[in-house]
Write a structure and sequence with these properties.
The structure holds two protein chains of two kinds. Helices cover 74% and strands 1% of the residues of chain A. Chain A is mostly helical. The longest helix of chain A has 26 residues, at 29-54. In chain B, 35% of the residues lie in helices and 24% in strands. Chain B has helices at residues 42-49, 72-78, 95-102, 112-125, 141-153, 171-186, 199-205, 223-228, 230-235, and strands at residues 4-13, 16-26, 31-35, 57-62, 65-66, 80-82, 159-163, 191-195, 208-213, 216-221. The longest helix of chain B has 16 residues, at 171-186. Chain B is globular and about 50 Å long. The chains are: A mainly alpha, B alpha/beta. The complex binds adenosine-5'-triphosphate (ATP) and magnesium ion (MG). Adenosine-5'-triphosphate is lined by residues 13, 16, 18, 36, 38-44, 85 of chain B.
């Protein structure tokens, strides 16, 4: 990734933004809701990519951070009628702090052990509303203010756009390089002056803050209803699948990953599978396997391979001109 | 006292005494050679100086300051940079990005364009600027060694620790490396601690040579003197250590 975005990157971002801006006026409220789901996953996958793709710390429990963000919005809206946008900013801040705190013990873990620890976090987080059921509504959940499909669509994609640009700004320079250096070699990173504790917890904080905003929108997208069984381990796995499909360590595939996990359940439920009430899950699982087999380095990896092929061709065509290099 | 000193350094791994009461003094502006057979403790000494390993007793003193409580990530800020014997690069990053990370400690206040220019200049200095935008993974070993060297230089160190920089180089390239190391001392005013099995190189460029064997210092002095030392000749079984023409 270079300092300045390439022309192709800028153009594709603008085209995507234009389509997303026009689309809601052409489709039904139901489909707006679906695309809002995509925005939620987009933000969550972006966050996971910062942590796992860039800094190399595996999390299979990002649903836990989404839960914290989601309940922040539900609690503030239910008890204090706080403006929903403000609750999203609060979700961002609280999850940023929570991510730092989780990142501290994570300093001692890596690889599969860190994955298991985050998994445990995702498993235990939904228990908290049950434990403090008087305040957090128990298994019945907590109702935030409801909003229209169009409002939510607009806010979700605006947040997605802001957070995407934010991630790009953070990752393009010194901080992003420090993250990737840690991922590639902790010894060399340390010897080059990269403070592992600072950058590893920073990645956790940013990542969790993103997941928090996603969680906040996620709750609003389910009719403003926060309940423990929305934030299951399956949600964490969906984010991880989305990040894998997108291609870890590159921002350009995230939209594809989000579309994949956001829309595939819908698509797979419309595929008729004979004699199975769980046909949807089977089809979803098969799709995941096929895509991972076809794109082992995700969509971003595919883009990189295409780019290499294109540059090779253009190099070949200008080879006769000695002035170009 | 010189720019860098190891004082009675001692470190064990299980039953192995990797450093046994080793003392070393590197004068500012000189090239110091650190040699010894395989497993003598040379790389361990580097890891102790850069704080990746913790001494059991003894001390590392740089520019008059003890590094006993310095975290490893601060060592480079004090002015010590290193390369690694077996190459520790950032394989998925480009050559240029590898060098940019080398300047991490001093990059906060600078503009990205300025950092890139500096990094490119450093790559040009070691002669691999044409590979700047290639990923580090997959380049030949000699090039990887040069990326490491550029990354270390990018932090503008006062002391440079080189762990077997001639590894994987052919005869001609070793000659170029000798010139290059002298240039670093004479033009960039660097102090260099050089670990190397390539005896010709060490004896040619070093102002002072220390010989380790089984974690102990067995000889220390000017290259010509060390080469004649019977203990040194015995440590190398007479084979590798032939006088330099
Ligand atoms: N992290 C470690 N754990 C256990 N033993 C170690 C460790 N690092 C070094 N040693 C041991 O300490 C001794 C000195 O090793 P060191 O790598 O410093 O040797 P060296 O002089 O660099 O040798 P070479 O010329 O082969 O690179 C060896 O016996 C080695 O096996
Ligand atoms: Mg060694």
């Amino acid at each position: 990734m270079t300092t300045r975005p390439s022309l192709a990157a800028v153009v594709s971002c603008l085209v995507a933004a234009a389509i997303l801006a026009v689309l809601p006026f052409l489709i039904s409220g139901y489909h707006q809701g679906l695309l809002t789901q995509v925005a939620v996953f987009f933000i969550a996958i972006l966050g996971l990519d910062v942590l796992t793709g860039y800094s190399g710390q595996i999390s299979i429990g990002h649903g836990a951070f989404m839960a914290v963000g989601g309940y922040t919005t539900a609690v503030m809206s239910y008890y204090h009628h706080t403006n929903l946008i403000v609750t999203m900013l609060m979700a961002f801040g609280i999850c940023l702090a929570f991510g730092f705190v989780v990142g501290l013990p994570a300093l001692r873990l890596s690889g599969v052990y860190l994955a298991l620890a985050t998994f445990a976090l995702a498993v235990s987080m939904p228990q908290i509303p049950l434990k403090f059921s008087r305040f957090l509504g128990g298994s019945n959940g907590l109702q935030a203010q409801t909003v229209s499909h169009l409002w939510l669509y607009g806010v979700a994609w605006a947040a997605a756009a802001i957070l995407f640009v934010g991630a790009w700004l953070i990752l393009r320079g010194r901080t992003g390089r420090a993250f990737r250096a840690i991922r590639d070699s902790e010894v060399a990173a340390t010897s080059s002056g990269v403070e592992l504790p600072i950058y590893k917890t920073l990645a956790f904080g940013i990542s969790a803050a993103y997941a928090g905003v996603a969680g906040s929108l996620f709750v609003l997208a389910t009719n403003g209803y926060a309940s423990p069984n929305e934030f299951t381990v399956a949600l964490s796995l969906q984010i991880l699948i989305g990040a894998a499909v997108a291609g870890l360590g590159s921002l350009w595939g995230v939209l594809v990953g989000a579309v994949f996990v956001g829309l595939l359940p819908e698509v797979s439920s419309s595929v008729p599978v004979v004699g199975s009430t769980h046909g949807q899950d089977v089809v979803f699982g098969l799709f995941v396997i096929v895509v991972i087999l076809l794109l082992p380095t995700g969509f971003a990896g595919l883009l990189a391979r295409l780019r290499v092929r294109l540059t090779r061709q253009s190099m070949a065509s200008i080879n006769s001109d000695p002035g170009t290099s | 006292m010189g720019l860098l000193a190891l004082e009675n350094a001692r470190l064990r791994f299980g039953g192995i005494v990797a450093l046994d009461d080793v003392s070393l003094d590197v004068a500012e502006g000189t090239i110091a050679g650190l040699i010894g057979p395989n497993g003598a403790g040379k790389t361990t000494a580097f890891n102790v100086i850069t704080r990746l390993y913790r001494l059991e007793s003894g001390d590392v003193v740089f520019d008059g300051h003890s590094l006993r409580h310095t975290p490893p990530s601060r060592v480079v800020r004090m002015g010590i940079a290193r390369t690694f014997q077996n190459v520790e690069l950032f394989p998925t990053m480009t050559v240029l990005e590898n060098v940019l990370v080398g300047g991490h400690a001093f990059a906060r206040m600078k503009r990205e364009s300025e950092l890139r220019k500096d990094a490119l200049d450093t790559l040009e200095l070691v002669g691999i600027h044409m590979h700047a935008d290639r990923p580090a993974a997959g380049l030949p070993f000699g090039t990887l060694k040069r990326i490491e060297l550029a990354r270390a230089l990018a932090s503008k160190p006062r002391l440079l620790l080189l762990d077997e920089p001639a590894g994987g180089l052919n005869h001609e390239e070793v000659g170029e490396l000798a010139d290059f190391i002298r240039r670093l001392r004479d033009e960039l005013k660097l102090t260099i601690l050089l670990v190397e099995h390539h005896m010709n190189l060490v004896m040619q460029v070093s102002d002072h040579v220390t010989v380790l064997n089984f974690g102990r210092t067995i000889a220390s002095g000017p290259p010509a003197e060390v080469q004649r030392d019977p203990q040194v000749i015995e440590a190398y079984l007479g084979g590798e250590l032939e006088p330099v023409a």
